[in-house]
Task: inverse folding
């Protein structure tokens, strides 16, 4: 009996790994997150039990302890259990916590990597997160803070790092992110790209500046890319910089 921690990728079912697709087709139970594309779930075996443990923003439903209990229960009763997570299980997916808990309970665990939206979203927009002469590194953070452990981002360090900054789960905090980074020394004119629903049919890409970030609502799920590479589009003609703010006309444009 094995619990497989499987990355579902950024959204498009065509970006599933072959291993993930194979496990979904024969799993007895699939315990999945809220943002996993329904087309991916449609590839499950007819007999599979689908357990939605998605955490809706602002909701206390399905705590991590409850999810762990579900995984242990199903892992002890079924031969093949898939814990399906958006992106990659070990990139802000709590896969490490779940793996440790499952092993402590005597269960076998396999990890099936997936494509994280932290690199898939920029790629979909034609943005190389690292590029010779422009960005020699990339820093990936989540704007969702773990209040229970009082973990806070070091914004001064992020502003001074000189790398491309990719922010996940930052839609609701977009404006404060821009303000904090400017206060910590980044130029207000720093290019920013916002990729919403990356790789999916309703994908939307907006390019703006750090100063204008968050003047218009940012919809979930979005990936925010900050740095000089955010002004690049190596796949298409030069992108138009979108002005966002009180004097920006119509604001966000597709």
Result:
């Amino acid at each position: 009996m094995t619990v497989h921690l499987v990355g579902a990728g950024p959204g498009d079912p065509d970006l599933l790994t072959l291993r993930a697709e194979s496990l979904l087709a024969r799993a007895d139970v699939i315990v999945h997150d809220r943002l996993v594309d329904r087309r991916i779930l449609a590839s499950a075996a007819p007999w599979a039990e689908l357990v939605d443990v998605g955490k809706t923003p602002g909701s206390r439903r399905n705590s991590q302890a409850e999810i762990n209990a579900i995984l242990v229960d199903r892992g002890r009763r079924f031969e093949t259990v898939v814990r399906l997570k958006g992106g990659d299980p070990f990139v802000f997916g709590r896969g490490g916590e779940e793996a440790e808990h499952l092993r402590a309970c005597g269960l076998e665990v396999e990890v099936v990597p997936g494509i994280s939206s932290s690199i898939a979203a920029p790629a979909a927009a034609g943005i190389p997160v690292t590029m010779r002469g422009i960005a020699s590194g990339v820093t990936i953070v989540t704007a969702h803070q773990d209040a229970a452990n009082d973990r806070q981002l070091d914004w001064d360090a992020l502003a001074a790092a000189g790398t491309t900054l990719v922010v996940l789960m930052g839609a609701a905090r977009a404006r404060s992110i821009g303000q904090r980074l400017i206060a910590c020394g980044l130029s207000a004119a720093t290019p920013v790209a916002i990729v919403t629903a990356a790789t999916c049919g309703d994908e939307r890409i907006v390019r703006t500046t750090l100063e204008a970030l968050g003047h218009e609502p940012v919809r979930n799920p979005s990936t925010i890319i900050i740095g000089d590479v955010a002004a690049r589009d190596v796949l298409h003609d030069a992108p138009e910089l979108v002005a966002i703010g009180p004097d920006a006309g119509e604001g966000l444009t597709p």
